[in-house]
Amino acid sequence: MTRRTDNAKALDAFIARKAEIDTMLARLQALSDEHFEVHPDEVHWGHVGTLADYAELLKRITDSAFKEGEHAA
């Protein structure tokens, strides 16, 4: 296998993963735009906990992507 072929396969896989991430981000943004499908009059601490969990997971991702937090150099 030539280096060029290997790079082409890696590029295809990279683009596929990027598309997967873009789709997930769009879905999350749409859900956020709809206030995570929770009506303001129905918000309770369980919803707050759920959003805290989401935020913690997203922070792990952004810390890794931006080399912040435990991923800082």
Rg, alpha carbons: 18 Å
Could you give the count of β-strands?
A: 0
Strand content: under 5%
Q: What is the overall number of helices? A: 2
Helix-strand pattern? HH
Indicate the topology:
Layout: H1 3-33, H2 45-66
What can you see in these coordinates?
The chain is an all-alpha fold and 73 residues long. The protein has helices spanning 3-33, 45-66. The longest helix has 31 residues, at 3-33. The model has no long low-confidence stretch (mean pLDDT 95).
Question: How would you concisely characterize the structure shown here?
Answer:
This protein is mostly helical and 73 residues long. It contains 2 helices and no strands.
Keywords:
single chain; 73 residues; mainly alpha; 2 helices
